[in-house]
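Phosphoglucomutase/phosphomannomutase alpha/beta/alpha domain II: structure tokens wanted.
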Amino acid sequence: MLPKPRADLKPNTADFERLPLVKPTGFREYDARWLFPDEINLMGLNAVGLGMATLFTRRSVPRRIVVGHDYRWYSGAVKQALMTGLLAGGCEVHDIGLALSPMAYFAQFELDVEGVAMVTASHNDNGWTGIKMGLSRPLTFGPEDMSELKSIVLNGDYETRTGGRYIFVPDMAERYVKSLTDRPKLKRHLKVVAACGNGTAGAFAPQVLAAAGCDVVPLNTDLDHSFPNHNPNPEDMKMLHAVAAKVRETGADVGLAFDGDGDRCGVVANDGHEIFADKVGVMLARDISSLHRNAKFVVDVKSTGLFTTDPVLVANGATTTYWKTGHSYIKRFNFENKSLVGFEKSGHFFFNTPLGRGYDDGLVAALAVCDMLDRNPGKSIAELRDALPKTWSSPTMSPHCDDEKKYDVVERITEHYKRQKETGGHIAGQAIRDLITVNGVRVMLEDGTWGLVRASSNKPELVVVVESPTSEANMKAIFKDIDQQLARFPEVGEYNQKIAV
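Answer:
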């Protein structure tokens, strides 16, 4: 039996080469992320594979699983080590090779396979690796699944079984692309910037958009796992600014930016200004609810308040629920409550039947944006954006905070704002109207201005977002208050990006 993993091993030592290393903090709320090889080694990945196989057995789920990997120099080795553990645990492993996360989810349906283990660090910096996992399509792991897997792996409580079987699937990329492109061509001529940040989506996004009828302007679509320009992250202003420059240079109708594993899509308008993904969600919700009356949507707590106040959505009978941030949370809520679409501010969009199969796919989201423009031939995407009620909102801002400390900081910040509300305290001259604490704390003021603090689900960071429907000054005022509260904690470090106040 594989030895019980340890968390204290160091690379370039004998023990590192003969024992499994698994840092406990790599098991996050709904997927796994480790620095490789400092926090997990190849034997540690054997242990994770064995643990997954054991979890399938305990849940009485057939041990059949799709496995793919993203385009980083070490992802292939990580996947091979993971598969070794899965095979040792008796799994039938369907290896689809280089893939996007949504391609792996698609393969679950295409191959009629229960499980998925997609090796990807998504948009994280180089050095990170991770796994997006599921055992019931179209869902991915939730906290209970991760907690049980963590216990199995860290306690060495896994079981080897005979019957493991390896199946290589050579044509899943072609089958996935065909499924997206087997549709009517766009009637409207659209020039589209396809920006991939040199990540995995570069191998697929331009082809799909061209097949849909777009005139594609490629931007950083050549695969380069050193990410020489910027991280493939459509929430990162560096990526959005690069897309904006290309849109202005080429006169494109829209810029579409894809993250490292292709399950998210960011949007830049024809005037060269980025549209944050929650506002894109409102635009798509307007379009979709005009076709599907009384549509139900779900959005994460980072998203704009327009989902409940926009007059067009109200007139179309649309209703929206705010839920926990995280692709796994929104995906599950969307599926279980039979919402039509789920939207996350990060750019994860989840289209249920008849629009999709319930999982997040950046290319499906990109095609939905193109379809929206196709149905509005006389309007630019900037005009559709400007038709929304005006709000002032920040990008997602993330100050560093260690994984072992971030949840405690958020709990103490939440308690602070609860006391403020109870005692009638004011922020920006306003009372606190409501607190949403389903995921961190969303502080809502009398005029609809709000600010959110939560712990990142996949990095040692906090997440801060603010918005005001009344003024930029109020947006900055609530951020200033939140920033001052965070400054009280020495555990909280520098932001990755930050608005000026």
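The mean pLDDT is 96. The domain at 14-174 is CATH 3.40.120.10 (Alpha-D-Glucose-1,6-Bisphosphate; Chain A, domain 3).

Cheers.
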